[in-house]
Amino acid sequence: MHVIVPIAFILIIASMASALYFMMHDRGTTKRMAWSLASRVGLSIMLFLSILFANWMGWIQPTGIPFGR
């Protein structure tokens, strides 16, 4: 998980940067910006679900205030 999360963040930021690039250069003639933003949403959802799955499997441990207190 220490490798997957930073890679996912880098991919999400790269997707946002490509959407900005396509927004400035395509001027609405193609749908590349929409696809780029849709892929960012998909990557964000996959990151969230993988964190939930890793917590369920016990690969990562939550920190903070315990439930019993």
Automatic annotation (TrEMBL):
InterPro entries: DUF2909. Keywords: Membrane, Transmembrane, Transmembrane helix. The chain crosses the membrane at residues 6-25, 37-59. Pfam families: DUF2909. This is Twin transmembrane helix small protein. It comes from Paraburkholderia terrae. It comes from the Bacteria.
